[in-house]
Amino acid sequence: MKLTPKKINFFTLFKLPSCYFSGVRVKTITAESCTVTVKHRWINQNPFKSMFWAVQGMAAELSTGALVMGYIKESGESISMLVANNKATFSKKATGKITFTCHDGLQIKEAIAKTVMTGEGQTCWMTSIGKNKEGVEVSRFQFEWTLKSKT
């Protein structure tokens, strides 16, 4: 079963409700990239009338995590995934619709393949960049994913 935006968004409703109710939605997912959007609304704002940093973090993490989940599912192996570290930079006030994109799909595919082949844990840094509707970068997140075989 291939992961689709609809399946991932349905998953967030039941497994990540704060993500779903904040308006975070996967728009596209391919072998190489995943795009997630979130619109600045009352429910996800901070006192400064922009999007709360944690909501941006949820959207950014989902753009990387969906790729990880997809490749683990494709491998057919029992592999655990966990964020060990993350880094974030904020360069502009996040208002309107923000689009987070991660282009590190092939990198995580390789890390999962190494985990399957060797049985050893792997780590992989993945980057997600958030841009507003004008295409201006508002934030950049990096997540260090750890992968371990459960067998």
What is the element layout, followed by pairings?
Layout: H1 5-15, H2 17-21, E1 25-29, E2 34-39, H3 53-75, E3 79-90, E4 97-102, H4 105-118, E5 122-131, E6 137-149
Antiparallel strand pairs: 1-2, 2-4, 3-6, 4-5, 5-6
General description of the model:
The chain is α+β, with helices and mostly antiparallel strands and 151 residues long. It has 4 helices and 6 strands; from the N terminus they run ααββαββαββ. The chain has one domain (5-149): Hotdog Thioesterase (Thiol Ester Dehydrase, Chain A), CATH 3.10.129.10. The chain has helices at residues 5-15, 17-21, 53-75, 105-118; strands spanning 25-29, 34-39, 79-90, 97-102, 122-131, 137-149. A 6-stranded antiparallel sheet has the order 1-2-4-5-6-3. The chain is elongated and about 50 Å long. The model has no long low-confidence stretch (mean pLDDT 96).
Task: Provide a concise account of the structure shown.
By secondary structure, this protein is of the alpha+beta class. It has helices at residues 5-15, 17-21, 53-75, 105-118; strands spanning 25-29, 34-39, 79-90, 97-102, 122-131, 137-149.
- Helices, by number, come to 4
Main sheet: which strands, in order across?
1-2-4-5-6-3
Report the principal-axis shape: elongated
Order of helices and strands: HHEEHEEHEE
Oligomeric status: single chain
Pick out its properties.
151 residues, alpha+beta, six-stranded antiparallel beta sheet
